[in-house]
Structure formats: C-alpha cells, structure tokens
UniProtKB/TrEMBL annotation, chains A, B, C, D:
Pfam families: GFO_IDH_MocA (PF01408), GFO_IDH_MocA_C3 (PF22725)
Name under which the protein is recorded: Oxidoreductase
InterPro entries linked: Gfo/Idh/MocA-like_OxRdtase_N, Gfo/Idh/MocA_oxidoreduct, GFO_IDH_MocA-like_dom, NAD(P)-bd_dom_sf
Molecular function in Gene Ontology: nucleotide binding
Listed SUPFAM superfamilies: Glyceraldehyde-3-phosphate dehydrogenase-like, C-terminal domain, NAD(P)-binding Rossmann-fold domains
Superkingdom of origin organism: Bacteria
Domain GFO/IDH/MocA-like oxidoreductase: 143-275
Gfo/Idh/MocA-like oxidoreductase N-terminal domain ranges (all copies): 5-132
C-alpha cells in the first residue's frame, strides 16, 4: 500500500554530477524507486548506466520520446520522471512526459527562454500533472524557517533584501581546459543567454523570493564577462526594487576567488533582521530590534514547524546539500501521493513549481535586457 | 553483477531514531537493499514497521534468533545485518548472526562490558565474517583528512590531544519526563556502567584515536552525575597519557547548556596543529609552525585522497551527519564485496571494527575504575 | 628634543562622543599634549570642559576665531588643532587655523559640499600647512595589510570590489526621541545633503579606495529614507564602475536590524581574493587562486611591514577602534615632526588628506545626483 | 582640582614590551602623569628611556631604592608606582614603595613564591597603601559582564568551569635563539618555579575565579616540558574541584601550534551557559536552558552596568587588549582618588589585589606540587 513511487530519469548517465545528486535525493527518504531511464544520448553509455543503476535493460531507452511512449504503455509505468539534462534539453522532454501523463521533476532553470517556460505552464495546466522544479536551496530547513518567520511578521515591513551567490571555479578559462560542467555552462547554445546569472543568480533570486514572499517589480543589472574570451556573463551586480518599497542587492559571481559556494541571504525589516549563509547552513541569526541577536538552529529551540518537518536528525547534527535536495523530492512525493486520489497535498507541503521557473526566467531575461541597454532600470516582465 | 547487498536489521522499529539513521545511511549510496528484519520486541509493531519499510511479511521476524536461523536457510539470505538495539542487546544478536554466517554492522558501543567485547572478538575471528562498528564520526571527510595529515607527518611529534563532546539535552532530569532516548541511556541495566562516557565519551575517544593513530596507555577520570537522582555519569573530565609522551584532555558532558552536539578535536605536534569541530564539519584549520593558518575544506584545495574518496558533492556544498554515517556503510559494502571472493578490500577502505569496540570499552571501564578510586591514574587494560 | 606636539581642539565639549575619541587617539602614543581649546559654543560648558581636560583657563576660548588669533600670537602656540564639530562646522575653523599657520586634523566629512572641499584644497596648498582627515578605518593594521597586498600584485587585475557598512541604530525615528547624535545627523542643515551616505557610506567608499588604490569613474545610487518623516537617506544601494574594468557594489544602511557597526570589504582579482570585516578586525582572509584560504593576523605570520609598523601589541592580543584612530594621529605626528624642518615624512607614513576629503564629497554628491535622477549612472566629478 | 595622579615606574626601559603597555594603559583615560622612574638596571639606558618618556632627568633613578627614598621626600612625590620588572623583581620594590607611602601597581605574578606573596599581604595591610595587580583580562567588559551574570544567578548552580590559554610562540627552543621575553620566562631564576603555568596559566585561573566568584579547593596538574632542554613547564593539563561541587578543566600551553593568544572561558550551570574567547573579545555567547543562544555584545542590548561602565566606545566598535589593561589603571585611579580622603572607592570599582596574587601563587605551587608527585589530587593551600 505504501509503495514507492516508480521513477524514471532523463539524462544523468555515467560521469555526470547532478544526475547522481537527484538519485541520492530521491533515495534518501525511500519514497521512490528508479526503474527506467534514458540516461545518455550515447546508447551504450545509457545502457551501461542503467545496469549500474539496477534498471532493467528493457527500460533503458535510447531517447526520451521512446521512453515516454513505451512507459506510458506499460501497466507498471513510471509515475514520475526526473529531467537532469543541460538547460536546453528540459523543454521537449517535459512536454513529452506530461503528454504521456507522467509527473515531471525538472532541474533548473526550467527552460532557456521565458517564452518556452510560459508555453510549458500552459502544457502543465492542460496535462493535470505535477511539475516540480528542483530549486533545491528552498529545501533547507533554515530557509524554510526564515520564510515562516517572515510570514509570521517577525521582521515587520521589509526594507532590505541582500542576497549573494559567489563561487570561484570559473576564475580562469577552465572551459578551455576541459573542466567538467564548465563547457556547457559557458556555451550560449546549451546554457541559454545567461551564464552566472542563469546558473547561480537564479538560485539567489529564487531563495530571496521564496523567503520574502515578494517579487521585485524592476531591476538594474550590470553583467560582466571578466575572463577573456568568455561570451556569457561570469558575474552580475544587480539592484532590485519591490512594489512594497523594499529594495535589494543581488550579487552573483563565478570568479570571486576564495568563494567555494557562498550563498547568503540577509533581510531586514522595521522590526527585525535575519541572516543566513551556506557555510553555516544549519544556523540562522535573528535579531528583533533592540534585543540581543539569537542564533536559531535546525531543530533547536525556536525552530518552527515549517523547518522541523523537513529536518531528519536532531539539532547539532549537521544536515547539508543532499538533505536539502532530498526535501524537494520528499515534498514532490507528498504531492504525487495526494494526486493519486485527486486530493491536494497537505497545506504544509511546499515545492518549487513552474511559477518559480517563469519567475526565474523573467529575472534572467530582464537582467540581460537591462545590462545590454547599459545597465538601466528594467521592468521584470512575467 | 553489481547487485545491492541484501541487508537485515535488528531493532529500529517505528519511533526509533538511530534505526532510521542506519537505513538512510545504507540507502544513500545505493549499495544495500533492506529485505528482512526483527524490528521490535513487540511483534505487531515489528510487522507494521516491516510493512512501512517494504520488507516482505514473511521476512519480518519475531526475534533475532528466529531471524538468524531462517535467513541462513534461505537461498536469498541476507548477507549482512544491522544491529541497532540499545547497548545491552548488541552482544547476543551479533553472536547469532555471525554463527549464521552473516556479516554484522553494529551500533556502538559494541557491548556493555569489555569482557563481552573480547568474547565477541574471538567469535568474529572464528566466524570469518566481517564486523563493522558504526563509529560514524570517523566517516567525516575532514576527519579522514586529519588522519591522513597526521600519517603524512605534517604535525610532527604529537604533544597535545584535546577532544570534547558536549551536549545539553540531559541538563535536567528529562529521563523522568518521558524523554525519548533519555530513559535507557540513564539506566545502568540497559546502557551499561557508563552514562555520558559510554554514549558520547566513546565517540570523542574514538575520533581522537582514529585521527592520531595512537591510544593512551593510562587515564585519569573525574566523572560526575550532576543531575539529582541520576545514577550514571552525565559528564566526565579526563586526562590522558600516551606512550610516546603526548598528553591529552577529554571532556564529555550532557549537561553543558548551550551545546547541542559539540564535538571538537584539536591536536598539536612540534610541526603543526589541527583544529576541527562539528559546527563547521566541512572545514579544518591547519597551521604549520610559523606559517599562516589555513582553512582546508572538503574537496577543496589541499584535500587529500583520503577525504575526497569519501566525499559526494563539490567543495562548498555542505555534507553532514547522514553522509558521514553513510560512509561507514559504504566502506562496509566495499569490504563485503571483497569478502565475497575472499579478497581483502582495497587498502584505502577504512571502517571501525571490533578493535575499536574493545578500545572503547577498555576506555569506559578504565574511566569508571579511575573515577571510583577517587579519580586516580589508571592503566587502560585492553 | 622629543617634545610632545602642542594640540588644540575645536568642539568636543562635555557629553560629546567623537571629541573624546580624538583625545584618546592623540594621547595613546604620547605624541601630543592638549593645551588649548574652544570646546563648546556654550562658553560655560567650554570652560568646564577645559578644566576637566587640564587645559589652562586662559587657553579655553569662546570661539575658534579668537582661538586661532590668540594661539597664533603665543610663543608656545599650538602646533596643530583637531576639529571635531558637526560636519557643517568644519570649513570655517579649518580656514582660520590654516591662516594662523596651524596644522589641522579634521573629522570627516571634510565639508558639507564638494565646492567647499575644493576651496579648502586651495587654502591648504597656499598655507603650506598639513591637513589630516580622520578617516580612521584606514588606520587599522589589517586594512594597511590589504592595501600593501594589492600593491604587491597578490590579487592581480581587480574584478570585484564589495564594501558595506551597516548599522541599525536609526531603524526607528530615534532623532525625535532625543537620541544623541541622531538629531544632527538626520538634519540637512547640519549634516549636509547626505544622511547614511555621508555618515558611513563615505567610510565604506574611503576604505575601498584606500585598499584598492582605485577610484570609480561612475556610480549608480539608489538612496532610501525608510523611516517615516526622515528627510535624509538612511540607506544606499550603490553600483560602482572603475576605469580599469573592475566593478563594485557598496551598501550603506543605518536601518539594518542586527548590525551594530558592520563594516566589511571584499575584493577579488584574477589572482586572489581578500576578505575583511570589522567584527574580526585583527584578521584577514586571503585566498590565492587554487590554494587554501589563509587567515592572516595582525603581527602574525605573513604580516607585512605596512601593517606591523602601525601595530602596538603582539599577534593574538586584540587591537580595536581606538588604536586605529590613534594611528591616524600617530601618522599625523610623524608628518608634523617632519614638517618642522621642511622635510617630507618617511615614505611609509600614510594619512588621509584633503584629496580623500574631495573624493568623499565627490562620491556623496554623485550619489545624491544619481538617486535624484532616478538612480541612473552618474559620473563622479572631482 | 581634577589633577592627574603622579606616577612612577620601575622597569620598562627601552625595548621592553610590558612597560610600554602599562604606560599606554595609564595614559588612555588621562588619569595619570608619568613623572619618575627607574627604568633600567643599566643607568644609561634608564636615563635615555626617561628622556624619551618626558621624565625629568633628576627623577630618573639608578635603582628602586633610591627612587622610593627620594620620591618620598619630595613635595610633589609620585602617588603611585608601576612595577613592570620580571617576576623575581616584584617583591623588593613593592616593599620599598609601600614603606615610602606610595601606592603600588604591579605586574603579575605578584611574586615568585607564595610565602613572599603572603609577606607582601602583611606589608600592604600595615602600609595602608593600595596594591593593584594587573590581571588585565579582568578589565575586559565582557569578562565583567560574565561575572555580573553569574552573580545575578543567570547560570544557576555551577557545574562546569572550562578555561584555557594557549599560545604557540614557545613551540621551539626560541629561548636559545635570542627571542625577546622567552629567555627570562624559561629561566627558573627569573620566572620562578612555573613556566607556562605562571605566565599564562595564572591568567586563565584568575579569569575563571574572577567570573565564577569561586576558588577550587583542590587540583590535579599534569605539567609538561615538551621542548627539549626546557626546564620549566611549557604546558599544563589541570583538573579542578570546587567546594560547591562544580568541576573544572584548565589547559595552558605555549606550544600549541596555531594558537596566537587563545584565552577562552566556558562555564555552565543548571540554568544556563556562557562562552567567551579572546578572538571575539567584544562578544559573549549566553544560553538560558531551553532557549536560543544569544550573542551579547559590549555596550549592546543586554549589556549590564558592570560592563558598560568600563567600556569606552559604542557597541560594534571593537575594544581590545590595551583598553582592558587601561581599565585596571582606571579602576586603580578611582581607588587612589578615594584613598586621598580615606574613603572607600565606589562599590562598582573592581581591581585585582594581593588576594588575587596569593590565589595565583597558591594555584601555581599546588600545580607544581601535584605534578611532581605524579599528577595527583592536591589541596590548594592559601
């Protein structure tokens, strides 16, 4: 009765990083069973991957089209599929599986253009299937905690939103030296028109949006390609303006030497302030105006239900990246189970959806437009 | 060919914490498949747990004796079993499964007395089966890194070993207020003769031993039971002396208000110093005498093979408790696979064994003996 | 022969904060002797202050005009004067003392308009006297260290400049509740046209300029007055562009709840990165591309002469705000001693001058101009 | 009327470190005027030092005996003297100045033996003069804050006292390589019978005693001399037992590579816990049982009068070592002023006295006795 969800995967063959992460995320809470896949555009590599992953040979498909069709025809069809291909290969497979009546869990960004994302939104609505976008950082318990604290009014009226995501692995032209992942991320044909802004800027933007519950109405973006010969941006300095008067700063860089994977969010309202960063992922600093700063911890004193329900081990025992990612899968499972009976999932269940995907692409496109026009104020068109 | 290892479990029924951790750890790297269990002394709860865990009803056993016998008789018998019962229920099941020719993965401490641990050592040798003790903190990549750095001579001749493990969840008599886990841990009949020293002191001792590669010859322990009515120690102040002249201090406390799960190791030799703590589990501070302090990170620059081979995600993406625990299971899997053909596992494979279990009990018993005699210097008898 | 420098002070009477800071700074290294002053516009309070400060009654003056005249006429005239009045009262006294042949040490910002600052520059040149602006954060040893490291090329070609100065003491309308210092700082008549941007934004801008050795050519500023009824800005989100292609982000806020006095600078070039913040004022994090992050400490291993020569106690013994401020006075003393003989001070001597004052006002005025025009790119006119 | 206190100094000639620190400390709050001294056993160096320090030639004395006599005879005699010579030269000068009716401010440890300290106690009582011991770390605002919080009962009944003071500058035999300060500190003839334990262990012990208000009744000390050829201890592992049932651990080391000047205190009672360390000297971490950890800051929210009255700059502006040292001088000045009229100083005034000196030597002697007897429990005889 409490059967695992049968899951397929597109992409994620041998040697890839993000596919392995999705699989661990799916496995961690034991809610899924990987039973089918089209793991690689290279059929041999695809089959070898399937064998390694305990997927039956007959369910190792040459391409996603065949997979969607054949799976849909099986009685024990997959119920959901994870799409973990590079950015430009999200759109078509998603359409195919939705049409086949299969829920889709898709890596971010959802597509390479806003127009595609909107087309997808329509297709999702028409299909009646679930679409889950793995903006994994929203799965961190302390990020959930921040969101709940904002919703509870602990910060009052928002004034400042500061978010940054800095890395240093693209500080040199490693894409020309065969670096894994750097090649397609710096190639407009495969990554889309955004470089750092698409790869990590969207994460920063998404987490700020998720926590504050607000989306900016306009932005001003000064994108740079510091490394010689690089076409796409490798960093972005961005100002944000919100309807309600709050203002923001967003920084994304993949050339900030000394930053391995620095994601940080700080928000301040007239009643309080919150600070969180990836280096201390299980903690949160909260100051109520005029009182001493508190350090709130995952599952510690002061933890709200919104964070404890997505936490697995007691306070003081660190959780990390894989657990946060797994929470997206866990929430997706909750929603899929509910969908079996046509029910809505429990109100507490939260997962990033096509709405987040559209918001992310609206952000990327507005930023690129702003920067190309000389870094001017630009409306975020959704 | 690359089949998952068939795993059974003793203990870990609904509501328990550590059983769930073992299962996630076994699942994370997809090397095991849970197919049998005796999950609870209460048969109904055991069967309900089995159902939840996708274990076939006929392989949900009423007790470990039946389980060992019946599994041994199956063609698709479990190859390994996880024993996750309270301390006093490790010894008998371990013996039973070894006799049945099944590898054992056992929660720590291995037994409640040194004598039992020694008896087990003999039984293990006789059985030719593997015995893996889940001293999970040795699975952290940065703990592996420290060990490798010591072995590489970066610290020179060791002088100071400082290790501490502090919590605060037993600051009051929560064992009388129905607190999960507090009851049996403070009960000599179930926990053995050590309280904090057995529960967390052994972890501290084990990590120091693992990293330094040295075991102290004698210790002096001043144990306390600060909370009124508590029989077992809830904290321990300990001095250590090593053969090679190094000296140590070990502190374990479950009544140190403000410490959620503070495990920290600092070691200093004549050439360098290393500092690590649980709050920043993915980092390590290393100082070579006369040079600036370096922060080494998991998978970052300066990471040695000893740590990268047990790491799953890139630097800057936090790993945590579950990943460390999973590494013990991954290493056990490596050893089990090798054992299928009678081969030794790769030299890089490391897992805590009965030797660590004996060392831990020798430590506990010496500490209790020392404290009862007025906190005097006491040889650690192994 | 090694006589203390005779010093006067304008402003800084009883109850003021910054005057007391200047006096401690002057005293710390025993290079000055306070012998005259016009401490308050209220003569009684001025005389009472003089008495407390061991200043002879006949050298307690009613106003700076009288003070400049009478001191100039004495054989034991003051050699230098500290001007510690609110911003709008810097210009006239400075002119008066320069004319009287007396060196001037002046609190920042130098004036309330760029035009005045430029007029002052001419007057300084004409007078042949020294003018020292107390941009005290440039006195911190680790800030000097960063500057020297940039000059030594350790960062390579600069890409990112991130500087921020956040406080929270103006989060509410405390200027209407009698808060010390808040009244004049939020009053355009006394503070000038900049609020947070003048009070702390200039510090942030100055430290970035000091360390990088670069000044931006243009900026874009989005200033806000979040607190109802406040006329001047209480926060500023600013983008910077440098001639050499580097780009920057500057944030100043006095309404960021939880920030007591957070000043932080991070700079990244193609070879390395540096991070420093006020909370750990005696440390610096330095990463050379591809190597582990190092923590450099004041007077510790790796400290350059540029920082050790302005440090007073061994590494590990914290220095702070007053020591940094005192270094400005120490450097001024070095320059004044050299000036006695018409010599240039030693090349190592560094102090903020009218050039920094002009740069600061150019920054403030450009920021206000930019913001008023809708937060558009604006040339910094000097 | 508010005249500065006339101060003399014994020791502290050119090139010395601690003498300069005492002078800055005396100067910082402008309560003293240095007017006499016997700065060096070498008369020429003494006179040169005097000239540099603006001390009149006739008040530069060849030795402390002459100084005490001649100063006592002057109408404008010094009112207090600072004794900053090596440890073995504290006793005789103190006696001489007390006899001359002059208050004494003396560097720690007060003497090299407990017997001398007790003799001094009698002499002080007989003299009616003040004796201030510069245990400077008790001058830190956050240390004062901790003490007040303990007194206010916020920690409840004390259980754990953990204090440590670790340095690394004696990790090698630098005393044989001409290192300043290392020579006399490692020489029993000049330092007394304690090495690290006397130099820094007493600071650790003193701060723990100051904060908790409790002195241990017994200790057990395992001293080591890790560096070859070193006679005195360079590190000490110590257990403490208090009358009231609390227990402690004290670690002092001058060979812990990577520790520049790490002083840390952690105390835990049944109601709360406090943690403080030198690296973040302006902060304090406080946890009330069951509540989130708070970070209390100097002059920040939650700061008690006990800390704000010895603080000079607003919260967020770091104070450091010199300020803490200056507070000892400020408190001494308060006491000296009160003594002029025979009054007691205000109840809030706190300074370390001969009682602290005796306690410190009782600690050192008990520790050495314990260690020599094989590291056994030893009563602290006072």
């Amino acid at each position: 009765m409490n059967k695992r969800i049968r899951l397929g995967m597109v992409g994620g063959g041998q040697g890839g990083f993000i596919g392995a992460v999705h699989r661990i995320a799916a496995r961690l809470d034991d809610r899924y069973e990987l039973v089918a896949g089209s793991f690689s555009s290279n059929p041999e590599r695809g089959d070898a991957s399937a064998a390694e992953l305990h997927v039956a040979p007959e369910r190792s498909y040459a391409n996603f089209t065949e997979m969607a069709e054949k799976e849909a025809a099986r009685e024990d069809s997959i119920e959901a599929v994870s799409i973990v291909t590079p950015n430009h290969l999200h759109y078509e497979p998603t359409l195919a599986f939705l049409k086949a009546g299969i829920h889709v869990i898709c890596d971010k960004p959802v597509t390479t253009t806003l127009a595609e994302a909107k087309a997808l939104q329509k297709a999702i609505a028409d299909s009646g299937r679930l679409f889950v976008l793995t903006h994994n950082y929203t799965g961190y318990p302390m990020v959930r905690q921040m969101r709940a604290m904002v919703q509870d009014g602990l910060l009052g009226k928002l004034r400042h939103v500061h978010v940054e995501y800095a890395q240093d692995w693209l500080s040199q032209a490693v894409e020309k030296q065969g670096a894994k992942g750097a090649e397609w991320r710096t190639d407009p044909a495969r990554a889309g028109s955004g470089g750092a802004i698409g790869d990590i800027g969207t994460h920063a933007y998404n987490i700020a949006t998720f926590v504050t519950g607000e989306t900016p109405s306009s932005l001003l973006a000064d994108l740079s390609s510091f490394v010689e010969g690089r076409v796409l941006d490798d960093s972005a300095n961005i100002l944000l303006r919100y309807e309600n008067g709050a203002k923001g700063m967003l920084w994304a860089s993949q050339v900030a030497v000394g930053n391995e994977n620095h994601l940080a969010l700080r928000i301040y309202g007239d009643k309080g302030g919150l600070e969180w960063n990836h280096e201390r992922v299980n903690e949160l600093r909260y100051t109520s105006y005029g009182k001493p700063m508190q350090t709130l911890t995952r599952n510690g004193s002061g933890a709200l239900a919104a964070s404890t329900r997505v936490s697995r081990v007691p306070s003081g025992h660190p959780e990390g990246y894989l657990e946060g990612f797994a929470t997206i899968y866990r929430e997706a499972a909750n929603a899929i189970i509910a969908a079996r009976t046509g029910a809505y999932p429990d109100a507490a269940v939260i997962y990033p959806s096509i709405k987040d995907g559209i918001e992310g692409l609206a952000f990327i496109e507005a930023a690129i437009r702003s920067s190309r026009n000389g870094a001017v104020w630009t409306e975020i068109e959704r």
